[in-house]
Amino acid sequence: MKIAIVILNWNGEALLERYLPLVVKYSGNADIYVADNASTDDSVAFVRNNFPNVNIIQNSSNGGFAKGYNDALEQIDADIFCLLNSDVEVTKDWLKPIKETFIKYPDAAIIQPKILDLLRRDYFEYAGAAGGFLDQFGYPFCRGRIFQAIEKDEGQYDETTEIFWATGACMFIRSEVFQNLGGFDEEYFAHQEEVDLCWRAQNKRLKVFYVGASHVFHLGGSTLSNMNPKKTFLNFRNSLYSITKNLPRRRAFPIILLRLLLDGIAAFRFIFQLKPDHCLAIIKAHLSYYRNFRMIYRKREKNNFIKKYYITKSIVWSYFVDQVKNFNILVKD
């Protein structure tokens, strides 16, 4: 099983200096690539001078996460692609449980390991935690992380299990699956493109797994922090994109109408929190979505939609009204 670890980089020399050595040390016979998104710092020179065995792919422009990986992976020959953020600290033997799961489950198309917080190492990290899920309205959340409530890792998610979506911070995907799905949707630019990719895989009856026996530590927020209005814009808009593309019309359109109301409530909440830039970001997200609706609609899956894509009706209601902050309590209820 030939694994290619691909680290997408944009002006991340400091991150590569800190985290790349452990990737090289702990990744065995895997091929390692740094795919550079037209950086203006000395990232490429740093890798070339200090890690001669690391392959460098230089993309001609910064097309974000989606286009950056699409362009890079076209140039790599491997059975499994590992998409790894540049701010991830890998651990000894992190690849072994992943390989074993791909072998044990031939229908496993995508896998993510346990994602822990680099700064609070016994807590899950926001981006991915112990595997992603959706509610009925398309809002994403994770085992171990519901909105801003982060669980402590006490071994509660150490098993191997199916999930709905895997985080792009550390995602393993069979190369043939990535190619057959057409890669990431480049209209997303960044954020939630992995949710869309996994949803499209699910619509084709492919399986996404979480493997708790493998773990990495993620710094997070190196490109856009959770408090950046641009991230708010991308998350809200791209979530609407995914609903439009991956649900049958009779289900997608009512949900989009309800999202107009729910996202409006979220926008007003930002005003009360004295974060008007985030409120404006949600408004801009909806305007961008409506402006691009015809283009996104043409990308829809034509048939074969899965019926059960969510595990709870409203994560917003559960979190803000019922005060559920723990995934296991959520699914128990």
List keywords for this structure.
333 residues; alpha/beta; Spore Coat Polysaccharide Biosynthesis Protein SpsA, Chain A; nine-stranded mixed sheet; two-stranded antiparallel sheet; 12 helices; globular
Which structural category fits the helices and strands? Answer: alpha/beta
Kindly state the mean pLDDT as a whole number?
95
Q: How would you characterize the largest beta sheet?
A: 9 strands, mixed
User: What Rg is obtained from the alpha carbons, in whole angstroms?
Assistant: 19 Å
Describe this structure in words.
The protein has 333 residues and is of the alpha/beta class. Among the domains are: 1-86, Spore Coat Polysaccharide Biosynthesis Protein SpsA, Chain A; 229-311 and 324-332, no CATH class. Helix content is 40%, strand content 20%. The protein contains twelve helices and 13 strands. The protein has helices spanning 13-26, 43-50, 64-73, 96-104, 175-180, 193-203, 229-246, 249-272, 276-291, 293-297, 315-320, 327-332; strands at 3-9, 31-37, 55-59, 80-84, 88-89, 108-117, 132-134, 140-142, 145-146, 149-150, 160-163, 170-174, 207-218. The strands form three sheets. Strands 1, 2, 3, 4, 5, 6, 11, 12 and 13 form a nine-stranded mixed beta sheet that branches. A two-stranded antiparallel ribbon has the order 7-8. The chain has a two-stranded antiparallel ribbon with strand order 9-10. Helix 7 (229-246) runs antiparallel to helix 8 (249-272), helix 7 (229-246) runs parallel beside helix 9 and helix 8 (249-272) runs antiparallel to helix 9 (276-291). The chain is globular. The model has no long low-confidence stretch (mean pLDDT 95).
